[in-house]
Recover the amino acids of this structure.
């Protein structure tokens, strides 16, 4: 705790509004402390490995020793190549240890109806007035990690779409941890999509070194009337690292959110996707896939709050757990009294590939309206022996068969990805992930 | 090609096969018939290597090798093919991908290179015609949502592509209408050759109107109780199985 306070005190001076927001975040974090397993939201996940370590603020261009005076010197474009899906037309914003890198980014063709900038720049210049939204979507009264992130708001992506703007090429935000020592970064993103605008935004969390760093990210998203956002979060951190990421969304009338969360990295990783359906007819689809092996612990929490009426929400999360890994799914669907005609479907399916892998799944449905249609369900299973034999009887050995059946299990959630290049790449990753790990 | 001697097998403590002895030579078609629960499907599963069944006694030699020591994929790589009575659904894996994986695994086992995808497509298209199936089939998930007839035709299609040396058809005729039956039989007949052998497991005689067997064996209570030529099938059609169930099983088992 003291180390966080020390780093907090050491931050350069910011505009008053931010100084005050950060101070509130720090105070709340200090009051809450790290969550324990007694906290219902953290019942299956112990964050002791994070709480017990002392993570220091990650090196940036201001504190670092890079000769170019930029964090770009610490990470080269070539390091990022395998994470960019080989799509030169996509707009790319790269952040190294949480700090924007102009050199590694390319988004010149994004057009003038969209404001794309680093949050640091917007804070400095005041352009776009990020204070209108920052800290107002991602509440931190009861969320220690969001409070901690808020205490350290400094940089991230700030994307604003004007009304009726449709952007065809996806915007890819790449957060790369350079991973020197036990360091922490707090990326903070803000996406504001005005009426009837439409975009695809990807957040990739990656690393260049296999070290125990900590990423504590928060993304706030505001969707105006009729806006549509396809949001992809790809958590591909180092398997020695720690990741807590919260994406929080507010949806106005008739807006559409398509969220896909892919989690494969981290020794201990938690992804929160929380959305509030605040206007009539708003829809959300939350899909996810988590793959863990070794001693990884991958936790996913989602929350869909139906505040307005006539909102459909669909959610499918799937998990594949191998080795001694531990998966967690906790999905809340909360239907307020006014949210009549809610149509909510939620499912979570898990495949355990080894006898020592474990999963805890907790779908939660709380309904306070009387005219709603809500279903939920969870399954935990192993590979089907008959399917295994069927493949073997065609000459396909146990390892390939296992890979194929694992891929088949995940296929339908991957199928929901609308970006073809990403879908193909993630399919390959799923095929490769569990290949050759079958017990001899 | 295949020599089965005094084969005993079952699931857990339940013995289903109680001493099967059978010889199959290259170029031959053998029909294995019998009432429900006689053990004929178990024989098919055991030959393909289903790990749910345990062999407790006896030997099976395939082209001079001990078949019972081979894993199921090794059996397939050596030319054994089982057309399943209940083909398994695998949602999420396309037939094209599944079959190309199988084809390449078999080639790899023979020390051959993987097939060129376009060359494979040519091969597959030719075999699709054999079972009267459309090319759109290839992109569908393996057996998922297929009708009974489609599943059986898909089995014969796979057999045609993988061109096995010993094909075992387990009740491939059950649930087929007469047109589908004809298509399936035609597929099997096209693949007959002096180098290959086929074991047709069936409850009914009607498939044997289309696939003419060289030998017919009747299984009852886990033993072969009678063997004969194709005319035995007609006799069974006329008299049913009851008269054979009373035959002293021990006598029939020793061929």
């Amino acid at each position: 705790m003291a180390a966080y306070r020390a780093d907090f005190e050491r931050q350069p001076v910011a505009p008053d509004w931010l100084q005050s927001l950060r101070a509130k975040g720090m105070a709340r974090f200090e009051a809450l402390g790290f969550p324990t397993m007694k906290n219902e939201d953290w019942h299956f996940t112990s964050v002791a490995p994070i709480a017990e370590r002392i993570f220091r603020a990650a090196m940036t261009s201001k504190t670092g020793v890079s000769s170019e005076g930029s964090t770009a010197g610490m990470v080269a474009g070539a390091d990022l190549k395998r994470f960019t899906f080989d799509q030169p037309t996509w707009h790319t914003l790269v952040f190294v240890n949480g700090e924007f890198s102009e050199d590694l980014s390319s988004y010149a063709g994004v057009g003038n109806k969209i404001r794309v900038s680093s949050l640091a720049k917007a804070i400095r210049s005041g352009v776009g007035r990020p204070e209108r939204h920052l800290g107002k979507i991602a509440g931190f009264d009861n969320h220690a990690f969001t409070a901690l992130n808020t205490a350290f708001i400094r940089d991230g992506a700030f994307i604003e779409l004007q009304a009726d703007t449709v952007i065809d090429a996806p915007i890819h935000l790449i957060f790369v941890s350079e991973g020197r020592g036990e360091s922490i970064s707090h990326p903070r993103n803000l996406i504001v999509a005005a009426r009837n605008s439409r975009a695809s935004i990807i957040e990739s969390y990656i690393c260049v070194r296999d070290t125990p760093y900590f990423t504590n990210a928060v993304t706030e998203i505001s969707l105006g009337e009729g806006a549509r956002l396809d949001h992809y979060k790809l958590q591909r951190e180092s398997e020695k690292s720690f990741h807590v990421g919260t994406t929080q969304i507010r949806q106005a009338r008739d807006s559409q959110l398509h969220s896909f969360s892919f989690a494969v990295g981290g020794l201990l990783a938690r992804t929160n996707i929380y959305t509030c359906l605040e206007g009539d007819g708003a829809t959300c689809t939350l899909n996810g896939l988590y793959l863990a092996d070794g001693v990884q612990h991958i936790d996913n929490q989602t929350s869909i709050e139906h505040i307005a009426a006539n909102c459909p929400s669909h959610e499918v999360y799937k998990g594949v757990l191998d080795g001694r890994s531990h998966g967690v799914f906790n999905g809340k669907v909360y239907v307020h009294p006014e949210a009549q005609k809610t149509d909510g479907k939620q499912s979570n399916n898990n495949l355990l590939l080894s006898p020592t892998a474990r999963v805890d799944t907790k779908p939660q449905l709380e309904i306070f309206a009387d005219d709603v249609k809500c279903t939920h369900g969870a399954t935990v299973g192993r590979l089907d022996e008959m399917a295994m034999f069927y493949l073997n009887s065609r000459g396909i050995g146990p390892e390939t068969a296992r890979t194929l059946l694992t891929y088949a299990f995940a296929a339908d959630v991957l199928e929901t990805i609308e970006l073809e290049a990403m879908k193909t790449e993630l399919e390959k990753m799923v095929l490769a992930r569990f290949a050759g790990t079958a017990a001899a | 090609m295949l020599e089965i001697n005094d084969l005993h097998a079952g699931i857990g403590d339940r013995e289903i096969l109680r001493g099967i002895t059978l010889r199959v030579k290259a170029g031959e078609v053998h029909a294995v018939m019998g009432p429900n629960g006689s053990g004929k499907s178990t024989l098919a599963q055991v030959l393909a290597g289903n790990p749910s069944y345990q062999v407790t006694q006896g030997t099976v030699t395939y082209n001079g090798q001990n078949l019972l020591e081979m894993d199921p994929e090794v059996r397939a790589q050596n030319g054994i093919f089982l057309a399943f009575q209940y083909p398994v659904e695998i949602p999420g894996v396309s037939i094209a991908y599944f079959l190309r994986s199988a084809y390449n695994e078999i080639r790899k086992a023979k020390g051959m290179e993987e097939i060129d995808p376009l060359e494979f497509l040519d091969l597959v298209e030719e075999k699709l015609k054999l079972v009267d199936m459309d090319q759109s089939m290839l992109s569908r998930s393996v057996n998922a949502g297929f009708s009974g007839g489609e599943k059986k035709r898909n089995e014969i299609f796979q057999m045609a592509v993988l061109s096995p040396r010993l094909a075992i058809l387990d009740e491939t005729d059950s649930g087929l209408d007469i047109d589908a039956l004809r298509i399936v039989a035609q597929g099997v007949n096209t693949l007959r050759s002096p180098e290959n052998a086929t074991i047709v497991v069936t409850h009914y005689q009607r498939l044997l109107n289309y696939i003419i067997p060289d030998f017919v064996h009747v299984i009852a209570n886990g033993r072969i109780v009678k063997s004969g030529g194709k005319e035995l099938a007609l006799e069974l059609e006329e008299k049913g199985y009851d008269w054979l169930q009373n035959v002293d099983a021990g006598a029939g088992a020793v061929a």
In short: Chain A has nine helices and 21 strands. Chain A has two domains: 2-279, 384-440.
